[in-house]
Amino acid sequence: MKIKMIALDLDRTTLNRNGRLSDENRKVLTELLNRGIHVIPASGRSLTSFPQEILTLPGLKYVITSNGAAVYANSHFPRPAGPHFPASQGHIKRSALEIGRARGAPPC
Q: Does the active-site annotation cover 11?
């Protein structure tokens, strides 16, 4: 079976105890992305607190933030020289509530 996607946590797993991406993990993630495998970092963090060394991995297309409440596409990732995009500005691709509504979940 071919692996198509890998979702992974950040803090103290993909990132070390100092919140940095090790050279070894960077090489592995880069290789996975180069092979066409979707690497999707998932975290309780907000988008604006994601490390740039994760957001700038070549080929990274999506991140899952806020404990799964929001999914962002690469075009909405904050850039070092640009503004940050808080969720309040409507840059969330799909929220957990929208997904629930689309699947017929009762309102909260």
A: no
